[in-house]
């Protein structure tokens, strides 16, 4: 399924964030200004074709009616498989005193949250993300935006089954830690040293039962306020940095 980006600034931001574009469609009646000049210059530098079509055709393509004379189509994101990600993590561990981190997103549904998780994962040196190939958010323009382009610099593996993937990681010497507000252990009292797989759950229901049962242990963040939990990306960021702190 094609992902379209509408509007001058969103397209310009997409190119600045590193999102690969197939082409840009420009209405034949667009008035040139500084923003249009920036967009066309950026497209030329990145070898993104710009094609002129009628405004009527753009209106028919537009889903939101806010194309401002421009619609772009992004290239499909290049996912990796679980084996590639596993090997990358093992290679990282060999080069970094035995530490490595893989972040598993157990059926996140918001592409923006996926991007925010990817941004933090890339920042701490995680070897990659794992997402399900069905009933879950995938990498979209919203992911590039919320990740500030980090999604282009971290491998993402799509897998058919999260629990079986966790079992495979365990067989290769990784410890699996599930993030759960019902966990007995606070994150900084748990052992997150070495090769860790961190499982982050769905925005509404958390980590699935089967993924929890497959995990070696679960961890939580202490909550002193009235709110019982954090956004998955916020919680994931805190837990990823706790892994980094313990291994630094």
From TrEMBL:
Keyword Amino-acid biosynthesis included in the entry's annotation: no
Name used for this protein in its record: 23S rRNA (Guanosine(2251)-2'-O)-methyltransferase RlmB
Residue span(s) of domain RNA 2-O ribose methyltransferase substrate binding: 4-80
GO-annotated cellular components: cytosol
GO biological process: methylation; RNA processing
Keywords: Methyltransferase, Transferase
Gene: rlmB
One matching Pfam family: SpoU_sub_bind
Family annotation (InterPro entries): Alpha/beta_knot_MTases (IPR029028), Ribosomal_eL30-like_sf (IPR029064), rRNA_MeTrfase_TrmH (IPR004441), SpoU_MeTrfase (IPR001537), SpoU_subst-bd (IPR013123), tRNA_m1G_MTases_N (IPR029026)
Family assignment from sequence similarity: Belongs to the class IV-like SAM-binding methyltransferase superfamily. RNA methyltransferase TrmH family.
GO MF annotation: an example: RNA methyltransferase activity
